[in-house]
């Protein structure tokens, strides 16, 4: 019986102290929140290191362009003739090194639909082989039809 009485006294102390504890927790949370958003910490990076990093990135890009120039790759942009997507010289892999299964990331057009862009002028896509092949095929079908009917 005495053990139960002691636990009752402890419980009574907690309940009588409860509102004070709740108020203390709320006030400390509000103070902590106010000080947490008082000011954003500034980065501790020196400006010279940022400039050095930019210069290093620029030099790496220049090296990449020099390598492309040595290999005889096109220095300009490649444009998808179907949708106008531009594959620029800043891409990781030069366009000439793309595999045969490469497709336009925007319209899924095949690699052969890309043309070189020189300044503001886009090179023309030569479809003359396709047109000539179609005409020869139509002539062959027409000839077979003529000989088959006679």
From TrEMBL:
GO molecular function: iron ion binding
Domain Rubredoxin-like as annotated: residue spans: 75-117
Record-linked Gene3D superfamilies: 2.20.28.10
Matching SUPFAM superfamilies: Rubredoxin-like
InterPro entries in the record: Rubredoxin-like_dom
PROSITE patterns: RUBREDOXIN_LIKE
Membrane spanning residue stretches: 21-40, 130-149
Keyword Membrane found: yes
Keyword Transmembrane helix among record annotations: yes
Top-level division of the source organism's lineage: Eukaryota
The entry's keywords: Membrane, Transmembrane, Transmembrane helix
Name by which UniProt lists this protein: Rubredoxin-like domain-containing protein
Protein's organism: Diacronema lutheri
